[in-house]
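[Q] Does anyone have a clean structure-token version of this?
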Amino acid sequence: MQAGFTQGVPNITNEVELGVEFVGFYQQFVKAFGIQGWDLYLTGESYAGYYVPYIADAFITANDPDIHLKGIAINDPIIGDGTVQQQIILADYVEYWNNLLFLNNSFLEDFVCISRPDQGC
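[A] Here you go.
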């Protein structure tokens, strides 16, 4: 499958290789547009939670003097299994924001108990 102007067959098998490939692309981009030494911030949202850390690590590992990685930002990242990630934080979220959700005490207690089966409710 190809998108846009992509040519060739993908040849990476994991996120570490993806980071290395991205660094190679960016090194060529820097040379082509003469932006050596510019500050670089990697950003993303949602699924970028999987990729931005690997790409940042690849930049750090490359130790290229022409690339100055200054920071990363990930908005609402997915950092693990999406279902588990939501279920783990849901009870804490509901408890914290209950002053805005207006859930009655018996519902809140039952909800938290169901959400945290390891606590033996």
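[Q] Thanks! Anything notable?
[A] The chain has five helices and two strands.
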